[in-house]
């Protein structure tokens, strides 16, 4: 057993701070060999780069950023197979007429996904602007939001909603993966990978209880949180999910959104 596989090693994990990650860390907060640091998806890659955490739940698109030598750590992930509910474009014009998209700064993968969908489905290259949250509906023809804020800070002034998971499924007939556990290729992580898989299995089994426990504190209606965790999201990185990641990155390269030749490393 390598040094990094020592079952007594203490691991620092960077975790998405949204409801969708709660099933992936079920039981880990009580594990004295694991420290959890919660943050929004867009900030977790930097924490991994800086060595603040050993492993992080990172946006898939960050796996192929130049200079990063990361591997997939676990078969646990945050994904969907159709509608996501919490990755949506809100617009006051029909999707095919959107030219400028204000984007949620918490997101990396979803921004690239939106650009791909609009290129592939509507033949439009979106102009992106950061969304600060204080803009009026007259200033933004469309806004991309991700995470809990889609539910608890809903943009009611926009008449049209496009769920990016549903749009991707319509475009490719594939599921989608938003975030995966990643860490340096130098790490031996067999023990941790098994621990993360067991946590995911516990979380999936107790998803309704997790929704009851955490939903209200994150301003989710409990029944909606239950449906979200049990039927909207998928938490296993299987063969079809790996195929979906490959297809997503292939389209991202075709549209010049990631560098050619960049491929993720599956552990």
Topology diagram in text:
Elements: E1 11-16, E2 34-39, H1 44-49, E3 55-59, E4 70-80, E5 87-91, E6 100-104, H2 109-122, E7 127-131, E8 142-146, H3 149-152, E9 160-163, H4 164-172, E10 176-184, H5 190-205, H6 207-214, H7 222-232, E11 233-236, H8 239-254, E12 265-266
Parallel strand pairs: 1-2, 1-3, 4-12, 6-7, 6-8
Antiparallel strand pairs: 3-10, 4-10, 4-11, 5-8, 5-9
Helix pairs in contact: 2-4, 6-7
Q: Kindly state the mean pLDDT as a whole number?
A: 92
Give the proportion of residues in helices. Answer: 25-40%
Number of domains: 2
CATH-assigned homologous superfamily of the largest domain: Periplasmic binding protein-like II
CATH 2nd-level architecture of the largest domain: 3-Layer(aba) Sandwich
What is the radius of gyration?
18 Å
| Quaternary structure annotation | single chain
In what range is the share of β-strand residues? Answer: 25-35%
Helix count from the secondary structure assignment: 8
Top CATH class of the largest domain: Alpha Beta
CATH structural fold name of the largest domain: D-Maltodextrin-Binding Protein, domain 2
- Total strands: 12
């Amino acid at each position: 057993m390598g040094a990094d596989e020592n079952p007594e090693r203490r691991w620092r994990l960077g975790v998405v701070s949204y409801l969708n990650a709660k099933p992936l860390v079920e039981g880990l907060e009580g594990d004295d060999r694991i420290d959890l640091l919660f943050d929004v998806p867009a900030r977790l890659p930097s924490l991994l780069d800086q060595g603040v955490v050993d492993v992080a739940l990172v946006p898939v698109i960050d796996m192929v950023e130049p200079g990063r030598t990361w591997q997939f750590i676990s078969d646990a992930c945050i994904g969907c197979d159709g509608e996501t509910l919490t990755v949506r474009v809100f617009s006051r014009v029909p999707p095919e007429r959107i030219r400028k998209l204000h984007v949620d700064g918490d997101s990396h993968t979803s921004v690239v996904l939106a650009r791909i969908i609009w290129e592939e489905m509507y033949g439009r290259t979106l102009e992106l602007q950061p969304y600060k949250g204080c803009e009026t509906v007259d200033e933004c023809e469309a806004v991309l939001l991700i995470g809990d804020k889609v539910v608890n800070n809903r943009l009611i002034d926009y008449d049209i909603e496009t769920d990016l998971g549903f749009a991707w499924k319509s475009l490719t007939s594939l599921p989608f993966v938003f975030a995966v556990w990643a860490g340096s290729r130098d790490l031996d992580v067999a023990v941790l990978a098994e621990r993360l898989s067991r946590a995911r299995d516990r979380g999936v089994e107790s998803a309704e209880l997790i929704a009851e426990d955490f939903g209200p504190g994150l301003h989710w209606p409990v029944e909606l949180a239950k449906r979200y965790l049990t039927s909207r999201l998928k938490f296993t990185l299987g063969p079809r999910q790996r195929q979906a990641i490959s297809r997503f990155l292939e389209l991202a390269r075709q549209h010049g959104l990631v560098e050619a030749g960049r491929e993720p490393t599956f552990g």
